[in-house]
Amino acid sequence: MRKETLIIKIDPEIMEEQLVVAGKMLAAGKTVAFPTETVYGLGANALSESAVDAIYEAKGRPSDNPLIVHIARLDMLGELAGEVKPYAKILMEAFWPGPITFVVKKKDHVPYKVTGGLETVGVRMPNHPVALKLIELSGVPVAAPSANLSGKPSPTDVKYVLKDMNGRVDCIVDGGDSHVGLESTVLDVTGEVPVILRPGKITREMIAKCVGGCEVDPALVDKSRQDLVPKSPGMKYRHYAPDAEVSVYSGDIMAVIRTFYGRIIEVVESGGSIGIMFFEEDALVLERLLEDDAVYKRHREKVHFMKEGSSKDLDTFARNLFKDLRKLDELGADIVLVHGVSENELGHAIMNRLDKASEGRVFKI
Ligand code: AMP
Ligand code: MG
Fold first, then answer.
1. Which of 209, 224, 236, 260 is surrounded by the most beta carbons within 10 Å?
2. Looking at the predicted structure, is the pLDDT value of residue 93 above 70?
3. Does the beta carbon of 232 lie inside 6 Å of ligand 1?
4. Is residue 201 within 8 Å of 124, Cβ to Cβ?
5. What is the dotted CATH code of the domain comprising 245-364?
């Protein structure tokens, strides 16, 4: 059923006034999409089963995939969480508000609908003025997965929220672009040491520095082990995937560039269209190779380049990753080739999302 969607474009001067109506909608069990620093979220009252149902319905999301519950102040955690370990409190103080979700024991009244049937709940305090004000005005904890149709790349630009969700939700708050660009780190803090279930902007190194240690879910480390099931249910789904077929290449820079060159010619010669996501450092060499190529010259409108800044600036790559995958879909690319990065620090999260987007077509050359 198509819904009437109220669209609110935020003017920072009068933000609070503008958000009152959206806050009331959340309190009344309606669905509201809103910006956070990671990606846009699709929110509803986390303590109302029917409100949470409306999220799953709008997204077309499998209901064993738990939702992250968003809070505006630390004291809201007490409403949701049972025991919180001392080291977890230290991490919350250090990184909240910010792009990290803590998986904690849930209180009885948190519906299993929100937790995908688990005894734990994922909680996050986003670092975004619009999100914080909206949650505060609603007066309820807000369950919010990314505001995209299930399986599509998470939206970092309201344009893609409108594309996926207009007519499917009650309200969309337009508050500009999400600057982190990747979903939050998901950290299990129910055990003796923190365990990363989904890598993100807050890295293993940052967490370990703060509390002395941090592990990573073994299912994320060794992808060849089919017997290891990720502890974060969402990680097992095909996720973040654009329409184009994505392949990721990393390793020797010249080998990567030569592979890109060869595949560009092969794809355009057979009548296809191709997108290239690469770094400034690659561009000069690749452009020189293509400049003298007659096949490329004839088909150059079929080749779309997305320069992701310098390979040393992974923040920019993270911020633009999902947006550029969406753009390449709009441009009609059949094939997308991405220059991969090493899996340290923020590179871990980037390669995790690229692994999903490419359905495992990740090559070291
Ligand atoms: P999204 O809301 O689309 O960013 O996805 C939320 C992610 O957090 C998914 O990968 C979930 O599986 C994960 N998550 C949320 N709550 C829990 C939980 N209680 N235990 C494990 N993973 C969780
Ligand atoms: Mg998502």
1. 260
2. yes
3. yes
4. no
5. 3.40.50.11030
